[in-house]
Amino acid sequence: MNQPLHASHPTTALSVNVNKVALVRNTRHLGIPSVTRAAELCLQAGAQGITVHPRPDERHIRSQDVFELAALMKAWPDREYNIEGNPSQNLMDFIRQVRPHQATLVPDSEDQFTSDHGWSFPQDAERLAPLIAECKALGVRVSLFMDPAPEQMAAARAVGADRVELYTEPYAAAWATPDQAHQLARYRDAAQAALDTGLGVNAGHDLNRDNLTAFVRSVPGVLEVSIGHALIADALELGYAATVQAYLDCIRRGAGDVAANS
Question: Which spans in 99-197 are helix H?
Answer without folding.
Answer: 125-137, 153-158, 169-174, 180-197
